[in-house]
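Morning!

This is the sequence you dropped in the shared folder:
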Amino acid sequence: MASSGDIRKGLCMVFNNDIYKVIEFLHVKPGKGPAFVRTKLKSVTTGRVVDNTFSAGNKIEEVRVETRKYQYLYPEGDDFHFMNIEDYNQITLAKNLLDAPDLLKEGEMVTILIKADDETPLSVDMPLSVILEIKETEPGVRGNTATNATKPATVETGAKVNVPLFINEGDKIKIDTETGKYLERM
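The structure's back. Tokens below.
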């Protein structure tokens, strides 16, 4: 058993008879009253996100997890196929276990959290950013660069991203996988 002081990003725990992963947390020590931890938790089975506050010293049941590197192979309906890069075993995961499935390109390396007790995959951690090619966007209008204007673009995986006006079809861009926003042109 762990306590609320051990809460950190990525921790998996049993909460309300389900397994949740900590997405965000904030330790708060007010001037008056006891300390507490404000958290945002994501269910690894349903994908639902809930906010919860744990008081100081509150006991939590931590789930022991292992991380393994997998390569994304291909989608099939709402399922995604991955291959372990060490032993070449393949697993199939549902779309709701992925944080940003529309940014996943074939051949991309991901980290999968696996419950150590029964080898159940819990969630997929994407890389911090991905590099994708622009497949479709409108040409930028000359002289409209004084403001920080953006335009919609479709990348090779089918995801829609807002990009600056100077980005053209065929350009490669870096996208933040947590926010889905444009970072830079490559």
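Headline: The chain has no helices and 16 strands.

More detail when I'm at my desk.
O.
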